[in-house]
Amino acid sequence: xxxxxxxxxxxxxxxxxxxxxxxxxxxxxxxxxxxxxxxxxxxxxxxxxxxxxxxxxxxxxxxxxxxxxxxxxxxxxxxxxxxxxxxxxxxxxxxxxxxxxxxxxxxxxxxxxxxxxxxxxxxxxxxxxxxxxxxxxxxxxxxxxxxxxxxxxxxxxxxxxxxxxxxxxxxxxxxxxxxxxxxxxxxxxxxxxxxxxxxxxxxxxxxxxxxxxxxxxxxxxxxxxxxxxxxxxxxxxxxxxxxxxxxxxxxxxxxxxxxxxxxxxxxxxxxxxxxxxxxxxxxxxxxxxxxxxxxx
Length: 296
Fold this sequence. Notes:
The chain is an alpha/beta fold. It is 41% helix and 15% strand. The protein has 12 helices and 10 strands.
């Protein structure tokens, strides 16, 4: 296979968010992460106030993000759950502040939560997407909330609980096939309720109860996920798998994160979820230039 073949755009799969259509063609959509938590694994609570988080969200939009993903509960290894009330206290003020800007700045808001009540109230406040990192497994009411709110959704593959998933998970026999099957099973629950597959985005869950080899296998199989006829999201930014690679143990994970996003873009990812929006955007503009070059 030559470079021109590798650079060609995969079959585009649409992610419908309201009237907006996000696609992998010519390059993936960028989702910028805003963690309104005191214990985020990456930014360590740097944006744990509405003002700071709001400025971070605006910077992401300026740098090239089209979706802002807002989270009020950390899923890092060893994290502790927070109450519905506390999570709402963290995320609702930011969503309400950003929502009036959507029409002029042309972006969508995603709420990163496993709690149906948080998801419901976030959509009422202006969120467009429910990003459930438990893939519907931690709150049985979540499918009904997705249906009732008419929100689009992201289903992230995960086994186990936040604090212990890296210690308690069972080894996979075929990680790509098993992750695909479990994600498709969750998606089918929503389809059975009448939710369009264009509004259901699947995330292989890099770092969620998986070994280094599992994560590398999933990332290198991005094209296999893109062939499922669902929009696909990859969240790889600054994750711990990078530090488990030989000679990257002390890396700040910045360059490896951008390269990982680029690899999934080559595989046809619809969305990449990142901390480093500006650098990812630049790498995607380069890919777009190669893909639009007449000789390709």
